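FIELD: query
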Amino acid sequence: SSTSRSFRHVEGPAKKSAKRRRLVVVGPGGGGGGGGGPVATEQVTFRVVEAFEESEGRYVVPVSHLRGADGFGCDLLSVASAEVRDAAIAAATISEAAILRRIEVKGRSTRAGEVELEDNEYRAAQRWRDRYWLYRVYVDPSRESHYEVAVLSDPLGSNAVRTVTRFNLAQGSGATWYKMVETTDDSHIGQDNVGVGKPEPEPEPDPESDAGSGA
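FIELD: result
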């Protein structure tokens, strides 16, 4: 059989919001190993950031407690007092003037490695610049209660940025999509092999010739 291939135009996948992998924040080296210590869950990392902020005289408001949480582009808001924090949580809203820091928390179980900003986080970092902070929390999985925090203001304007160009060839990108179609032609099967490997048939005797030879 023979196979022919042709291509037909098809629709590409629908365009989706893509992540921007733009930041690299590297610790001083080393890494955690396996063990019985805590893992870098949101609950653990938020608690570490809250303790850090309070040690600096600030208090955190989780944006999940506020209306329009997705619009903040971060995880926590840092405010000047416990009273401001409590009032914001009770009212489920906060004034812009009360926000000291917009904090995006990234938890990791190694001291070195990259962290990412997704689209809404990236836009917020662009907008708020030095009022937008990236907190990378290292949770050592091999040691109980060993935490480290790297804090970075204006991450997009820092030396931690590594730009990676990505291309999404979905609908609306200008790319043209084609589908390969394979067609098998079996019409000649058996024709090409006629007589191959088979002996030629013996010719039938001619009765008239036999009769003439006996005369």
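FIELD: remark
The chain has four helices and nine strands.
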